[in-house]
Amino acid sequence: MLIMLKISTEAKEWCALIDNSIFIIYRYFKRLLLYQPPPQAAPFILEETPAEKPRPEEASDPHQEAGRAGLKEQHYELSSLLRQAYRITSLMEKAKAALTQKPDEASRLGLEAEFHRLEQQQQELTPLLLSYDSQQDRTSLGSAPLRPSLEENLHVVNRLYELPANKDLVVREITLPLRPPVPAVLLFIDGMVDSKLLNLAIMQPLLMMPPPQGIRNGTGLISHLRKEILPANQVVAGKTFTDLQDGINSGDTVLLIDGVDELLIIGSKGWEHRAVAKPTTEQSIRGSQMAFSENLRVNTALIRTMLRTSDLVTEMIKIGERSRVNCAVMYVKSIANASLVTEVKRRIGSIRTDYVDDIGLLEQFIEDHPKLPFPQTISTERPDRVSVHLAEGRVAIILEGNPFVLVVPVDMFALLHSAEDFSLKVPAGSFMRVLRVVGTLISTMLPAFYIAISYFHQEALPTELVLAIVGARGDVPFPAYFEVIVMEISFELIREASLRIPNILGSTIGIVGAIILGQAAVAAHIVSPIMVVIIAITGLASFTIPEYRFAFAVRSVRFGLLLLAAIAGLVGLSSGILLLITTLAYMKSFGMPYLSPISPKSTGGLDVFVRGAVFRQESRPDALNTKDPTRQPHISRRWTTAAPQEGDDQP
Amino acid sequence: MGISEGLALVFLNTFPRIFLTRPAQTIEANAGLAWFAVALPLITLLIPVYMLLYVFQRNQGDIYAVTQQLLGKVGARAVSLVLITMFVSDAALLLRQFAENTLLTALPFMEFNNAISWYTVNAVILCYLGIECIARTAYIILPFGVASLGFVMAALTPFYDINLLGPWQGHGFGTAVRSGIAVSGINFGVLILFVLGPVLQNLRTIKRAAIFGLGGSTLLKALSIFVFTLTFGTKIALEKTIPFFEMARLVYLNRYIQRVESLFIMLWVIAGIMSIAIDIYIACYLLTRALNLSTPRPLIASLALLVTGIAMIPPDIASVIRLDTIVTVTLHNAGLYGIPLLLFAATVFKGRKKKSWTSA
């Protein structure tokens, strides 16, 4: 019995095991073969927008598309009419209530004013205007004129600024204490306005102003507020939603008043910005120690503090379709060539893009040869440098939010000048310039020259030097051009890395990295010591170029010459140099030849390769074709022409 | 373009043969008076220059427009064809000789096809950038070129031997005059100024550019040959196929500055490429004018290919040198003296009223 029971138990266990296994296999196949809902939600996929890839059914049915658009227009029109109807109803109820009680003078005037406003608004609600408004998209809506109805205007503002989702825009409703009181709205972006200024110079005068006598219509009210009530230093009237957006987006406060189809843009900029500091990339021992900041108006003011002439003109151009950034074009009217100024404004004004947030981007939009590596503008953070160039007849371009200013047109030699060349005496200034030219030549050609000589023209080297090079390269298994490429790339890596590393560590790590890397590479017989010397000299020479972008262009050219030298020795190098010079001769910066005053030959004003004495720099650069080519008279040091007289010290 | 650019164009187009075998040929023909045979054409070349200046004073435009005014469309096209042939032949001969000399002096392991293609490609790129850029580049390079030549000549001072100039009459004064005038066609590059015409602002610019460009080029060539003779002597000079290279090779200032000839390769490579580019561009320009096209750019690559093809026809460098002399004596001389004479005669014959020359 016991045995039977035991067998039965074992059999049951076996059955259970088999049964279990069968079901496991069954379930496995079932999961494998049958559809299972995914265990987690479908991942997000950024699909193409309908504009990029129209769906076939939509593309094939224009009637449906037109019908949808028609419905949207009708919805807009009906909503507008409905809101107007509500306003009329509200007025009628108020009038009914006033008539039932005995109306006083104030309520009568109030009702009368409201009636006039409604009457004016009714004229705007013609079917044609409504249809036009409803068809406008967000961008074109911006250029529409304001309506007399505050409610309608706010409706457009809501659409423009995506309210109430967008929390940046503050809509502050107020009531102007007029007879009768008039609803109004202040619009500004939180964080961009000066709160103190807003409270004291805008809100307080508006809320506490005495009711003006005899002012009923909108234009009169706007004029009254601008001239007599608001103490802010900049108050400008506007008529379109473009004005409204420009004002709000620039950090100003916009005032909308019910029944008035105009707005007031009240200056209230007050966002946080960096203070005027020392230049970081164009340091000088002598001369000014101020640098531009991100605030456009601070930058223009800095230039004005240096160049104090009423002739200095600052014109503003808005750039960008979506983000409309202010761009200032500065020039000295009596000096700068008028066609140059027109061309600069034309190029900037014709830019069509969403937004330009960086002066480097702007430069690429307006320069003559954006595909060539050579900079065709001066980019500086020093107001004194900009002032000097403006006084020479050039044009400065300042972009909002950028601490660098572009100066155009420019010749190649100006890119080798530094800020303090004229702070030093003639010999010192000239010596520094010659040193920079030599540095530029070394930086451009030395590695290529070495490759050409060591590969193809060994006879040009003294025998001892050839033997020394051969001895040093004896253990290196790679060809010389491979060495150069390895070292150049290593150098570029160190340079790039030292830029990204935090300031305190950057230079140290750069130097340490270069030394360790160089020694290790020589010890490992990857490169020869002579190559380390050549690349070090080349790198050092490249740092003598004061303009960062020009130094980068020189680096690019260096690689090209290296390749040509590796292919055809000095023949290749000379071809490369010839093509380089011809390309430079071909280039122009805002219509001015890039190699002037050398080629085409013109008067450089003793300020090209070397600099002359300041009192001998009588004319402005000829290539700029300025309105007034004379900078100072032939004898600028008049004290040298006459002996001192008695009474000279008297004022 | 101004005087500087015009001067540089003429100089760069008439000078590069000093880097080739021409000096040795001149010495062979004139011995001690070779320098005189080179300097003499400066006087004879002023005759066609002044004839053309006279013609251009009375007619407006470039050489094609002037010829059209004087000889009609067919005449203008015929003159253009002669000029195109001159410039194309010059480009082909220079291309071949510079490519051969590159193999001989700088890159002995390079394929001939690659050497000739190298020059062609460089010249084509220059042509695409335009004659103004070429002229400006020429003007920038010119002082360095002259200074380098000056350096070589000055550095050879220790090797000067006045006795090597003797006999100073060479093969005779008459021979020198005949030989000098016979090969003066190598200076036909001065016609570039008249081909471009209105681009050079006014006649005063053309006149000055012609005189200074041609004068500088001729005098420097004469001085080079004089120094070459002074250094090597007539007998040895005949054995040197590339005189300038040999002169540079002889430079020894001290143990660290010797054998600098390879550095001067850069100078003659640049001069060669520029001269070929100028020839090709001017030929394209004339073709554009003759066929009434709007721009020479599309023609550049095709014409450069044609020039390369022609340059590769002669079997060896000796044939090229012989051909160079033949073409210079016949075609280039005919073009240089014949075309100005023809236009001058036509102007005088027509007795046109003098018109003020204005830039286009």
TrEMBL record, chain B:
GO terms for cellular component: membrane. It is a multi-pass membrane protein. It is found in: Membrane. It holds the Pfam family Spore_permease. Keywords: Germination, Membrane, Transmembrane, Transmembrane helix, Transport. The keyword Phosphoprotein does not apply. It comes from the Bacteria. The chain crosses the membrane at residues 33-53, 74-95, 115-131, 138-160, 180-200, 212-233, 263-287, 299-317, 329-349. One of its GO terms (biological process) is spore germination. Coiled coil: none annotated. PANTHER family: SPORE GERMINATION PROTEIN A2. Belongs to the amino acid-polyamine-organocation (APC) superfamily. Spore germination protein (SGP) (TC 2.A.3.9) family. This is Spore germination protein (Amino acid permease).
